[in-house]
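tRNA threonylcarbamoyladenosine biosynthesis protein TsaB: structure, please.
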Amino acid sequence: MIKSNILALDASTEALSIVLHYQGQTFHHFEECPQQHSQKILPLVDELLTKANCKLKDLDVIGFGQGPGSFTGVRISVAIAQGLAYSTNLPLVGVSTLATMAQQTFEQHGSLSVYPSIDARMGEIYFAHYQAQNNLMLLVNQECVIKPDLLNNEYIATTEPSVAVGTGFKTYPDAINDFENVTINTDITLPDARYMLAHVEAAFLAGDVVKASDAQPKYVRDTVTWKKLPGRE
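Here you go.
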């Protein structure tokens, strides 16, 4: 049960999602709209606030998708959240896109062990393992970017029934053929801000928040190696 008044948004993948939880009611928008996030996001925030008869200053905290995802999309998420927080002096909580998908899998299907993934392009995926603890999906080890065919027992170590979700496994379903305990759920492919609420509230109540000036993206792939063209060393 979410008790805090929260606005959360995510623009870090092809999906754009915004959720407003205010006075016990939830208002939500989700759509896939590649390359339109920056034009759509603020009008949609205003639309949800109007529906809820709520002003930004009435909120307790703002959550944002901090990545991984597309570099441009992650920057949009962070920048919009910072701008909204600067105008109201509200605290911010960044939530991993992989954690968001794991949380959705838990809340919708009761899965206790989840391997979320996002297609990172260039033959790689963003990947992690999350497990449920007190109704919150928590990270096991660390998030990484990896070639799907390199997934082995080091990365998928648990033998308990687990679920794999996200565009990474939609693109590379054969990557987990060797793991009989892991099944792919094709319904959950992209992060949805609705499932950031539990993480945002938990962090807010624990005081694990940042000021607008300190909000940071989490790219996971910090450097990208491009093949140099002849004559462009």
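Notes: Residues 71-88 form the longest helix (18 residues).
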